[in-house]
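help with this.
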Amino acid sequence: MLDVSDDVRAEIGDEEADRLLAGENAPGSYDCTSCRTPGNPDQERTSTVLFVGGETAVLAFAHASCIPSQVVSVSEEQLQGAVRSITGQSSSQAAPVPAAPNAQAAPAAGEQAVLGVTCGQILIGSDLHAAIVVEPTGPIARPGSTGPGDEFLPMMIEAGFLPVTNVASEPSLLHGWSVLVAMGQLHAVLQNGPEGSRPSAWWQAHQPLGLTDGWRASANQRNTVLVYAAPAGSIGQQPREDLLRDALEKAAAGGLLVAAAMPLAGT
């Protein structure tokens, strides 16, 4: 009951793909690379997920109900972190998880900037939603600009994020973007490449970020992550999810918050 997509087959070759489908190299059991719960390809449909780095490729397995078989491009450093997590060398999990300033990102207009990312759950109505909050550590100017202004929010709006006036409302889906959670950790926010090429990282963690069981459960239940963004100094590194929610509401009231919903990719 193993699924091998055409993209995965093209990467690993027909011979290896056929061996997998014949059960020769398929695992008897596995921990789903998305929800981290056990799976068995003899009892349930299972996806092959190939993570490809600069010099390394890792074949992982997931419940087909969590994600389809696919190829996911990640940095070599991220892939080595995934390998360490597979072999049980990853660190503990906690949320919210402040990440600033450990990540490089390319905002909509292409300029390199240091972004901080915090993971937490947001209550909308009576339902908890997995969310990440993106906030630069300083003002972001457009490429070639010499002025002191902060263009982060306008660039995010140009990229398709929408202003948030009420945190109690769920953001709209942003097509072409997705959130990469692999081996139970947050790796990147992806943006589709031109003309249907493989997605590339708009933001990626220098070290994959640990996620709570609750965060992963909410993300997998809806196959969606809510991504909020605010200019430097609007949110801060909040130690609790209630304080994170308060900071988001304050930023929204001040017209300093944009958001989008994104599907999970490669998780």
